Amino acid sequence: MGASKNAAAADPDGTLPPAGPSLAIQTFDLTRRFAELTAVDRLNLQVPHGSIFGLLGPNGAGKSTTIKMLTTLLDPSSGTASVAGFDILKSPAQVRRRIGYVSQLVSADGALTGYENLDFSGRLYGIRRAERKRRIAEALEFVGLTQPAHKLVKTYSGGMIRRLEIAQAMLHRPAVLILDEPTIGLDPVARRAVWERLLELRQTYQMTVLISTHGMDEADELCDELAILHLGKIATVGDPEKLKATVGPDATLDDVFAHYSGGAIQEGGTYRDVRQTRRTASRMG
Amino acid sequence: MTYARPDAQQVAWGDSPFVLDFVEQTYAVMRIELKKMFRDPTELLSRAVQPILWLVIFGQVFSRVRGIPTGNLSYLAFMTPGILAQSVLFVAIFYGIAVIWERDLGIVQKLLVSPAYRAAFVYGKAASAGFRGMVQTVIIYGVAVALRIELQWNLWSILGVLLAALLGSAIFATFSFIIACLVKSRERFMGIGQLMTMPLFFASNAIYPLALMPGWLKVVALLNPLTYLVDALRGLMVQNGQSVHSLPVDFAVITVSFVVLAAIAARLFPGLAQ
Question: Domain residues for A105?
Fold first, then answer.
């Protein structure tokens, strides 16, 4: 990744102290236990600035738990992480100001219009009136929702909702955008539209993007770097091409995935995971 | 490829003081709640039916029972503030179900990832519940006029009644919010919600005075914020009505109850995303 090149990039007013040498996210033995289950087990991730980084793994591998900790929704059992330059335990409020989050669930409010959803987000992030208006118009344009902006979100398609959620998450110009299975339940056209928006966000706003996925094509198309999680640990990490090369000459990411996560695809995932995933999928579809 | 480091200036965050941010965020939450309410006012209107039934049917029959000592008030005038308090309670106590619904959708997670103060969500929702309480107040004034109950029509009394209805709604909506944070599922919430409302209502002075209660029930009633809400309303709303505990005591108890509950709710809210 080219991220190391800007290691020395100045931060004139010092509001964003670097998290190690130009890392947008770094975890330090990040661990989360639920009763006897260790969902995330001493995870050490390093996500360079400006990269699109994929967390790949079967259900129950610890992707969502990791994301919940990085977004300050869940406290780690031990270890910690630095996100956008701040420690998730010591300065969660600073982290929240600097991240955007699109959850696996549907976080746009169906009873409001697209515009109202964005306006509400803008207010929560303390963006002042004139600036808010300008940014909402820009974000709507960016995700192609200017036209239906004043329609109720419950009339939107799944793809439109996802794009609205991206608009919502980018409004405050986060340094790091975190998306939990952003294209789950979307048709191929809608998925591609989401990918394009993410690539352009990185391009235009220099955002670092962290996504979790179990779509191999998604990881292949979108991610500069991947970490394959298995039972809460990193099974392997690297860019998609390198990962394929390590498994075999004609290997696909499916092969890489199967190689590192073994039979876990069949056993992984709790009842709750499955229920939630299906529910999300049916709502988006 | 080279990527520029995200500019610190891009981080949109006002440098306004705590109070201003808090008020703005609370207002933002209340605003969308009210928007949703007005978009679908059927619930707002259907909520009017129950207090009408209580006053018109229960009230008419019970005014013929002369055994309830209501001082110099008719029984109907005595119970009208009680029924207003009851409808405030019944409307607000199911507020938590919406919070659980928003959690299942993923809206709660979105809110908690934002840097807004947790208490702003609690106060914003409480304020919107308060607005509904004031709508109930208007409806019950209408019914009371139709039943020829003699009301106090001076401005301060009416403002006092509205304030009491607002604070009362805020208390029970926040109580409901706390239960939502604890049970986290709609099924369990419905069970507990049903379980809570009737005891809160009957262990209060809403439809009979404290003086009639056996000792243990009186103790329970004195710990119940609804009692102070009813007492305040009784002193403000109807002619010759008197508050037993005095208005300052009533309003102090109501306000403190709300502030304490809101603090608990703001503490518990983040757990809802886990």
Answer: 20-284
